[in-house]
Amino acid sequence: EVQLVESGGGLVQAGGSLRLSCAASGFTFDDYAIGWFRQAPGKEREGVSCISSSDGSTYYADSVKGRFTISRDNAKNTVYLQMNSLKPEDTAVYYCAAGPFCIRERFGSWGQGTQVTVSS
Question: Which residue numbers in the chain have pLDDT < 70?
């Protein structure tokens, strides 16, 4: 059974940092790209970042470039999202997802999400 479990969310003041983790099981982790998405109340889910399976290429939404860093540890079947200089507009539920490529429509497995709240 494919499972993706997010952790590391919480409440932080603006300017602070959090590190999210996405622990995967039930599939060959090395073969899959992992993406992070977020959804704020009343808004559509948006892509935040992605790391490929092949060469570890990384992609970021313009809104988080320079502040967020995605990385993966294939030995631990885990992907991390280091979030620095957090802003109130980063408040959302953050989800990780697995797919063959960093293409939104190809993500077929999703975690349950972790809440990130940034206070001003």
Answer: none
Give the whole-angstrom CA distance, residue 101 versus residue 113: 20
Give the whole-angstrom CA distance, residue 92 versus residue 107. Answer: 19
Query: Looking at the DSSP assignment, which residues form a beta bridge with residue 119?
Result: 13
Predicted confidence at residue 105, as pLDDT, reads: 87
Given a contact cutoff of 8 angstroms between Cβ atoms, the answer to whether 45 and 39 are in contact is: yes
Residue 104, helix vs strand vs coil: helix
Output phi, psi for 25, to 5 deg. Answer: -155, 160
Pairing of strands 3-7, 109-110: unpaired
Residue 105 three-state SS = helix
Instruction: Residue 90: count other Cβ atoms within 10 Å of its Cβ.
Output: 22
- pLDDT for 13 equals 98
Residue 66, burial from CB neighbour count under 10 angstroms (0-12, 13-18, 19+)? exposed
